[in-house]
Amino acid sequence: MGKITFPKDFIWGAATASYQIEGAVNQDGRGESIWDRFSHTPGKVLNGDTGDVACDHYNRYKEDVQLMKELGLKGYRFSVAWPRIYPQGKGQVNQKGLDFYNSLVDELLKAGIEPIVTLYHWDLPQALQDIGGWDNRDVTDYFADYAFKMYDVLGDRVKKWITHNEPWVVAFVGNAFGEHAPGYKDFALAVRITHHLLLSHAKAVQAYRQSGNDDGGQIGITLNLTPVYPDSDSPEDSEAVQFQDGFQNRWFLDPVFKGAYPEDILEFYQEKYNAPVIRPGDMELIADNHIDFLGINYYTRAVVKKGRESGFDSVEHVHPEGKYTEMGWEVYPEGLYDLLMRIHRDYNAPNIYITENGAAFKDDKVVDGIVDDQDRLEYLKSHFEAAYRAIQDGVNLKGYYVWSFMDNFEWAYGYSKRFGIVYVDYETLKRTPKKSALWYRDVIADNGF
Ligand SMILES: OC[C@@H]1[C@@H](O)[C@H](O)[C@@H](O)c2nc(CNc3ccccc3)cn21
């Protein structure tokens, strides 16, 4: 592909999340989150790593914003830690928590960087988990109250909001697979939770429209979407694709854009799990609270075939020959093009932002002050090219936030996986831009490459 230039005003950014970078978990009145509890539970996180210190961004945010400015970032996606605002999840507000995010937003605006704020990136106040967490329908109201408070405090300067980051991961990785906080292995629980997450999303969108701060503001949701391909053209493998696509993608896309769950998956869940629990009015609330943009987190594709056991959900993942990241995820930029075209075709999505795309590779070590992460640079370049092709083919893609601005706490993998375009030495907390960051700086300056 020759030189490509992205549309004017395309937002080139980078993304992070509160529990992964802030540290300072006991500072200034922050309450416990489910990830504090999970990471301090022996055996849950590799090497016993926790987010207690992480990148200490809570105390180093001015330095970090200065580095973002030096890289020329146009946008920065971060999340608010609910337990910093409401240490008990509801009730008493923690002013020092509000002060931190007010200062962070002011620093970003002074640096000419547009904030896009995620309200929930997995760090639920533990006090709410103690009353059932997302399985307790009342938590959907506590989430809307928390969202309303953030709109009230930041809404005059923050004009792009994301209600949830990856409800599929929150529900299934945290409550069916047991690999994330709170660590349950109960599929029916996970299905019930998906509905409460979507209900809380709708209530937070409704609160935004009522906040009086939505003038010129946009609100959306971020979904981890994975294009699914069959291992063969057999009818069995096509059925496996249909289930996997429904399980991972359509279960969230359909309610958000069409106001109803996909019939095939809903029927399967009700039959097998007697879930979700949907009350009269729920689907109307979800249907009536439209989003202004869709955030897409794209990392890789899925290739599936029918599994050995019977049933609609009998799916086996196949791992084709090719390049893989340190997470075991296939490098497949074509999947980003196919995904964007599918969302454009099947959901007529309004504005779309890639709210996360990036990779962990082994090539991260500082040699003579340089981290030569050529693998990550090439990963990003190939995915930017796929995004460009989709824009040329009509997709309303308005921005791209690389995951991640800096190396950080990678959930159950702790600090063993590095996704940053900026290297963090966890002994000294020194930040060092990697080769990919210096290349990205030029991409942003030229609005292309
Ligand atoms: O794993 C990299 C990032 C992670 O650091 C972010 O916090 C999170 O938003 C994120 N989502 C994915 C893709 N989805 C996923 C699938 C299974 C387990 C965990 C994440 C990757 N990432």
TrEMBL record:
Catalytic activity: Hydrolysis of terminal, non-reducing beta-D-glucosyl residues with release of beta-D-glucose
GO molecular function: beta-glucosidase activity
Gene Ontology process terms (BP): cellulose catabolic process
Domain of life assignment: Bacteria
Name assigned to this protein: Beta-glucosidase
Family: Belongs to the glycosyl hydrolase 1 family.
EC code: 3.2.1.21
Family annotation (Gene3D superfamilies): Glycosidases
PANTHER family: GLYCOSYL HYDROLASE (PTHR10353), LP05116P (PTHR10353:SF36)
Organism, scientific name: Caldicoprobacter faecalis
Keyword set, alphabetical order: Carbohydrate metabolism, Cellulose degradation, Glycosidase, Hydrolase, Polysaccharide degradation
